DNA sequence: CAAACAATAGTCAAAGATGGTCAGAGAGGT
DNA sequence: ACCTCTCTGACCATCTTTGACTATTGTTTG
């Protein structure tokens, strides 16, 4: 626990223990711990990933920031990971619908949400050749699964 | 929230919270917040866009002004049609986000639904060249608008 | 009334302020 | 030695701020 990464990680997590989310300025933190700014990116990329249950947003330019939030890890994460593996990078319209129904049954999505997503994944919404369409649909579904984790 | 843009934005929106429309003098506001006049144009161009639901008029010359109004569209069906027209077949990620926020504000979508859709419309979810990406995003958003009508 | 002048607002490109990426160097463990 | 994790810095992307120049409208003057 002597490397800067761990120290900064501990510092941020200690704050997150009290506050639900924190907003930092990359430069400030870098100065406080006397390291280069990109070190902060390293900390965030290795310690505050979605897999570890964190959601990070940022803005560049004047008044920029990095915001970190702890997200709730559901038991259903396993299911989501499973689905992700099943889907891979190819997904038919019918299969997509089945997955969505499953997600609704597991109460990970509401019916309305499923309808919205389904409409976006139907072939009419993906104007490209069949093969690309299925790849695209799979890609979007993968995004959805990741997003559900932080809803 | 320390950059002038956000501060001026908050100031104007706070007034718009009570008044239905406001009329300002660019020079006056610039003086009050100690910035150059064109800063006010920046605030307006980035924070009071049509996507965000604002309508701005102005006049130059003696007695000139900038008038900002929140657009109220009572019938949500009309709003959806309007949006559809505004979007056409080209849509940036930022504009998409602004529209989604608007839909949430109008209670046509829930926050969760907006988050899901936003994640599907972000550039990482649309792996294609920028131009196609924007067309695709517009297409998906059009589908969404149609879907909302029958929810 | 037309021409000048005054009073506003708009545009745009450059500079400033942040954060992001990535490849390579460094450090620690096996 | 080799492998993995950490650290660094040069370069990139994005958002904000500024100011010189332009455009439009109102007012005064010849």
Automatic annotation (TrEMBL), chains A, B:
Entry keyword Repressor: yes
This protein's UniProt keywords: DNA-binding, Repressor, Transcription, Transcription regulation
Name used for this protein in its record: Transcriptional regulator CtsR
Keyword ATP-binding set for record: no
Residue ranges of every copy of the CtsR C-terminal dimerization domain listed in the record: 76-145
Transmembrane spans: none
Similarity comment text for this entry: Belongs to the CtsR family.
């Amino acid at each position: 626990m002597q490397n800067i990464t761990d120290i900064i990680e501990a510092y941020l997590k200690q704050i997150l223990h009290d506050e639900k989310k924190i907003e930092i300025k990359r430069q400030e933190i870098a100065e406080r711990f006397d390291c280069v700014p990109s070190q902060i990116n390293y900390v965030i990329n290795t310690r505050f990933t979605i897999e570890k249950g964190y959601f990070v947003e940022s803005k560049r330019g004047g008044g920029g920031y990095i915001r970190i939030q702890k997200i709730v890890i559901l038991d259903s994460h396993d299911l989501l990971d499973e689905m992700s593996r099943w889907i891979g990078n190819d997904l038919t319209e019918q299969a997509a619908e089945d997955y969505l129904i499953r997600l609704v049954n597991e109460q990970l999505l509401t019916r309305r949400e499923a309808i919205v997503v389904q409409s976006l994944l139907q072939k009419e919404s993906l104007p490209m050749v069949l093969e690309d369409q299925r790849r695209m649909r799979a890609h979007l579904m993968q995004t959805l699964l990741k997003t559900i984790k932080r809803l």
